[in-house]
Amino acid sequence: MSYPLSLPGNAPLVTLTHPKSSLWIIELHNGQDSRLTVDLIDGGLRPALDAVEKDWRSEWRARKGDKEKGKGSLIIVGRRDQDKFFSNGLDYERALADPNFFIHTLNPLFARLITFPIPTIAAINGHCFAGGFMLSLACDYRVMTDGSKRNAWLCMNEVHFGAPWPHSFPGIMRAKVGDSRVQRRIALEGHRFSPQEALQAGILDELASGGTTADVLAHAEKLAERVSGFAQAGAWGLIKEDLYHDAVKEALKRPQPSSVELADRVAKARL
């Protein structure tokens, strides 16, 4: 594999790098706020995840008692040349206009991340809203800016503009946020969590002091080094498949179309 890898090739929205033998980094750069679109997910994120797994598995198969081979961890970070956004969520109007977006694009991405075979870390370098929040929860660990450079919030704001959640969202939240009171604040109140509040609530694992994207990424890399050895035995993803079975099942649930006309629209959009 040749790095850096920019995807999709005609108009890159993510960049995959491999700075250390046990570390891969996916940078989101769909505009300034890294909205989760079909092009970013199907043309960028999912192929990047496949490339990481292929690379890691080739190292894992070659480990043969080498204590360093087979380690692996993946960081997902927002656009590196700014400190304002990790991801601003979906391009909501476009998502609603595509009857296959949730079923064939977004939900399979979350299922893939939830069960990824090496530790995944969301390096949250700014605001993290809605679908971006769920992207971070689908990762195994979350490191966020401490907000000292500029304000940064985590928020599921659908309740404020009248949007129901797709099946994958509550499944992920129940798997990753154990306190029902915190779930209520996230889902039903649309609370804007500061980094400090999110850490106290157990949504985040660590805060990065300094406040810049470089600070967040450096902190995430230290965490990645600490957890990369968990991938060596090859069971990390398999255990997660059982641990988060319900979340994966919800993410991959395909609702029955409510009418033959809707079923026809879904099929035409897919073909």
UniProtKB/TrEMBL annotation:
CC per GO annotation: peroxisome
Record-linked Pfam families: ECH_1
InterPro entries from the UniProt entry: ClpP/crotonase-like_dom_sf, Enoyl-CoA_hyd/isom_CS, Enoyl-CoA_hydra/iso
GO biological process, one term: fatty acid beta-oxidation
Gene3D superfamilies cross-referenced by the UniProt entry: 2-enoyl-CoA Hydratase, Chain A, domain 1
A GO term for molecular function: delta(3)-delta(2)-enoyl-CoA isomerase activity
Family: Belongs to the enoyl-CoA hydratase/isomerase family.
Superkingdom of origin organism: Eukaryota
Record CDD domains: crotonase-like
Name this protein carries in UniProt: ClpP/crotonase-like domain-containing protein
